[in-house]
Amino acid sequence: MYNKTTKILQLGRNIFKFRKAKGLSQNQLAELLDISREHLAKIETAKRCVSLGLLIDIAEKLDIPVKDFFDF
Question: What structural domains does the chain harbor?
Fold first, then answer.
């Protein structure tokens, strides 16, 4: 069973995985999202929680369904 911290970490790892699969750097995706690279890096490493609105924006930019981020 996963605890909350583990799920947040896996969510960040999945964002990282899909970003890399799309061939985007953190800088490139951050620019598309109008956020700082540092903010995105903290989301990918579970140092900051991602809001639902931003998660939807990330999914749109990566052209994937939001539900795919929760495949753990």
Answer: 4-65 (1.10.260.40)
